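On clarity, I found the account of how folds are encoded harder to follow than it need be. An entry of this sort, consisting of the sequence and the corresponding backbone structure tokens, reads as follows:
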Amino acid sequence: MRRIFLWLALASASLAVGQQSTVTRLDGSTISAAEIDATMTRLMKAGEVTGAGIAILNHGKVAYLKAYGFRDKEKNLPLTVDSVMSAASISKVAFAYLAMELVDDGVLDLDKPVYQYLPKPLPEYPKYADLAGDPRYKRITARMLLSHTSGFANWRWMEDDRKLKIHFEPGSRYAYSGEGIDLLQLVVETIAKKPLDVLMQERVFQPLGMTRTSMVWQERFESDFANGYDEYGRSVGAHRWKNADAAGSMQTTISDQARFLQAVMEGRLLKSKTRAQIVSPQIQILSKHQFPTLSDETTDENKSIRLSYGLAWGLYWTPYGEVFFKEGHDDGWRNYAVAFDKEKSGLVILTNSGNGEGIFKDVLETLLKDTFTPIEWEGYVPYDKLPPRPPLKQHKQVAVDGKILDRYVGRYGLPPDLILTVRREGDHLSVQENDEPKQDLLPESETDFFSTASEDVMTFESDSQGKVTAMTLHAEGKDISIKRIE
């Protein structure tokens, strides 16, 4: 306990929050606070970004920290540096920090097959039953899971049959996978005999002074949190995660992410050789794009920057030395963190907008003079290069008898990974995917309902006896049948 309190004091003392009058960029030039403000204001307006928090680090210190725009556009509430936002996949690098602490403790070996840490064979866990016929799961290690070389798809629900499978020899190529991170979560929780949200508080967040960060939603966040907004500016609400997910459930603030990036730069809490492994190349990346993850399309375009993956962080090289980076992408949230390791300089940006990625290139180039990010591989299209946004389809709500609405109430999905909960909300329905925010479903017929927060349309299906058996999700040109489970 004494060591934790010491770490907390050191972490809090070293953040050095506050704006300097000028910020030094990579090339030695400076940019004033007024110029940063003007740049962010201009880009957010042009890119239709609701809110953004930025932190700029110079030589290991936080030189600039500020929030812009709104955390709640409807209530005209400004975003603050302490507004709780969804980190999305930046959660993965925070979780990796916990895993590497366990490596330091000698209880996790990066190169030991992870199934050997479990009390029963991996396919005997319901979530991993699909792997029963594939012995290659016995070759998967923590190093492969952290470097995204396990062979899994990003998520099994993206598969045609929605089953988990290994697509290539584990360790042989890069393919980003949230499934892999979730498998390592199972292993870590088994080793430590504690749930992930408790472990992250004890081993990462509290020691680093990240006082408004958690893997699950906390009541105290209600005083200052941000809603996410889609590309059309519609609110998708806040992610009030009930269950910790190493791949994406971290709730955090721009202040705490500044603390975290600073800690990774310094290797705080880790042995120097362990920290060095995080930013050591584990696999060269030859894919044309990061997504879709299993595409066979390759390129030599990124060989000059030695694009590769370390342990949970992407890596590339520049005239200023090695760079590590991580993205966060979820409905209504777009985030990015980048650090120049030798310079100990970098930037974190958190946005509560589906348009956030459109300003990343200009933000990096203007505020940091970072012209090296593999923008095309990342899939980031600058706001002024995007094609015209398709007009929203017009729907008309009709009145539907409450008895009919009640027939649709229940749970649909593919347990335990995908659960859609349909509830009655007066004269309409709502649907909630796992722990994500609820979406209202308004009827346009007795069987067809449209979402108020997306372009999704859902059709409820009944058998010959009138029993509701499934819903069909019409989204992105696809019709996906989802069975009723209760």
The radius of gyration is 23 Å. The domain at 2-105+178-385 is CATH 3.40.710.10 (Beta-lactamase). The chain has two domains: 2-105+178-385, 402-483.
